[in-house]
């Protein structure tokens, strides 16, 4: 059952003000207001997690801190002007995750595999090298593509070491990330049905996750590698 939890205009108004007054003095003066908005957004993220657990298995939900790590950045503003949360799928037999980014004029949903470890990345690439037909069929499913569009993510320029740059599926093999991103309008985020729409979007990606889980838990002969 979908819970009646929404993202309010007041949250976006606060984030806009924070972007325009990104300094410690302003933030400290408005910290009680921030804490209130943060708690409400966290409740929204918890509701997203509850919905996910009806059709997936979520190991943990993380709400990201508002404070920026400025040590290695040219941008020394101390605070993020967005709120975000991630949802990690359970253990070695599932992998991957979901992400929500809330920012006036720049909100999005994302899902997939942001930074596969070296072994997982090699396994995915070998699967694609051997036969990418199932992978292409899944990412081109009508419901998935209507909601999420094209597969995205960083990639190498030509071909990974040990792979043929002339391979017919090199467009997939050269990827370092395997993610889908759905950009959102403010109207969509502030809609009373946003929680339901988030869940609908995440449900649509399930065939992709099922396929990737199967790839990452088997060898190239299709035999399980889980203990």
Automatic annotation (TrEMBL):
Pfam families: DUF2461. Signal peptide: none annotated. InterPro entries: CHP02453, UCP028451. Transmembrane segments: none annotated. NCBIfam families: TIGR02453 family protein (TIGR02453). This is DUF2461 domain-containing protein.
